[in-house]
Design brief:
six-stranded mixed beta sheet; FlgE/F/G-like; about 425 residues; cilium; cell projection; Flagellar hook protein FlgE; alpha+beta; eight-stranded antiparallel beta sheet; Tick-borne Encephalitis virus Glycoprotein, domain 1; about 40% strand; Flagellar_FlgE/F/G; 3 helices
Length: about 425
């Protein structure tokens, strides 16, 4: 019994060390593979019931697993959509079937890093066929309320529909000084025109022309102006008009006093904005709140548009896709406009090493891993998403070569046990002769 158990233990030792050799071979072969997680083999002693007068060898068993918890070094690249998680957590991805499958039938996989580029259909994918997933943003760039413990709300990231964009102008800030002398008795009363370019919803350039006409009194100074707004997209009569009376006190002289909305214009005293109806839709003109000096002013100086700013942009072509450390995937256009397309969450599970390897540095959930939870990048226990970055293999070549030598010696020793047991059994057989 003891001799046969020794033979069995030796054979099991050969098998266990062969498994360890296989994992070492994999690790060394993938030492340059981006995102590769080192394979490990654990040995466990197997114990049989032992008697008082003899000993039976139980042998050894081996269990292999991926050390997914280990984090590889991050390297900088020149590709903005090379993405890695700096810290704990993984990126959600799916396979090619998941692109067309319904949300409930889509395969969820996780990967620590990936070099994603748009394919011929606009989906962000790696060369190995992993498709990046995220929560789509609305037209304003906001992420709606989503489920954190389910992948149902995640969608394959597609940038094809965002190749061109036009952002209409909705706000214009007027930093303009009007000459106080123009409202004094005897002044010429000539209007001052201010053309302001704006963009409609199609990305076309139009012009709003604001005509500031001073009120000239018979004596003294009126400090009052009438403003009419003409739109090049709707020529003819002004689209709006309003009046402004400026303060003349010692502390607030030259600041906006009273604003009265006229035809096609409504003034909000709380925000200092006048809303007019341009040809493409409503536009807010910031003229300033009462007593403020950051909008229109009336000082003893020349007519001066010191700061006229607006939002919106003309039609522009997609230049690049970038991701920030908050997981926001943004489209960057030639005009400089940035638009949030998706939020890429960072996935976490209770037991990272319990994830099941699917190849191509992707992993799926298992009973051992526990349920997934999707965090915002950089919150909770997870790290941050990093663009222009890939994660290197976690293989330590020096350590693997050391383990290789140890495994070779252990294998040779177990082979010697098998050889010795064979010789002892041969001797036992010879006793009958």
């Amino acid at each position: 019994m003891s001799i046969s158990s020794s033979l069995n233990a030796g054979v099991m030792g050969l098998a266990a060390n062969a498994s360890r050799l296989a994992s070492i071979s994999d690790n060394i072969a993938n030492s340059a593979t981006i995102g590769y997680k080192q394979s490990e083999v654990d040995f466990s002693a197997m114990v049989l019931n032992q008697g008082q007068t003899g000993y039976s060898a139980g042998g050894v068993s081996s269990r292999s697993y991926k050390n997914v918890d280990a984090e590889g070094a991050l390297i900088n690249t020149g590709n903005s959509t090379d993405i890695a998680v700096d810290g704990r957590g993984m990126l959600p991805v799916t396979d090619s079937n998941g692109v067309t499958a319904s949300a409930s039938a889509r395969t969820l996989m996780l990967t620590p890093t990936g070099s994603f580029t748009p394919n011929d259909q606009g989906f962000m994918s790696t060369l190995s066929g992993l498709y990046l997933m995220g929560w789509p943003a609305d037209a304003s760039g906001n992420i709606p309320s989503v489920s954190r413990n389910s992948a149902v709300g995640l969608q394959p990231v597609n940038v094809a529909a965002n190749q061109f964009v036009a952002s209409p102008t909705t706000n214009i800030n007027l930093g303009v000084n009007l000459p106080s002398s123009a409202t004094e008795a005897g002044a010429a009363g000539s209007p001052f025109d201010l053309p302001v370019e704006y963009f409609n919803s199609l990305g076309s350039s139009e012009t709003l022309t604001l005509s500031f006409s001073p009120t000239v009194p018979g004596a003294g100074a009126s400090n009052a102006w009438t403003v009419s707004v003409n739109d090049s997209a709707n020529p003819g009569a002004p689209v709006a008009s309003f009046t402004i009376d400026f303060n003349t006190g010692l502390t607030n002289g030259g600041t906006v006093g009273t604003v009265t909305g006229g035809a096609g214009a409504a003034y909000d005293a709380a925000t200092g904005e006048i809303t007019i109806n341009a040809a493409h839709g409503p536009v807010s003109l910031y003229v300033g709140t009462a007593g403020s000096r950051d909008g229109l002013t009336q000082l003893d100086a020349a007519f001066s548009p010191t700061s006229v700013t607006k939002n919106g942009s003309p039609i522009s072509e997609l230049q690049s896709i970038e991701i920030d450390d908050k997981g926001m995937l943004e489209a960057v256009y030639e005009s400089g406009l940035r638009r949030t397309l998706y939020q890429i969450p960072v996935a976490d599970v209770p037991n990272m090493n319990g994830l099941k390897s699917q190849g191509d540095q992707a992993y799926s959930l298992s009973r051992d891993s526990g349920e997934v939870y999707f965090w915002d990048s950089g919150t909770g226990a997870v790290g941050t998403t990093q663009g222009f970055t890939l994660m290197e293999s976690t293989t330590d070549i020096a350590a693997e070569l050391t383990d290789l030598i140890e495994t070779q010696r252990a294998y040779s020793t177990n082979a010697k046990i098998v050889q010795t047991v064979d010789e002892m059994l041969q001797e036992t057989t010879n006793l009958k002769r």
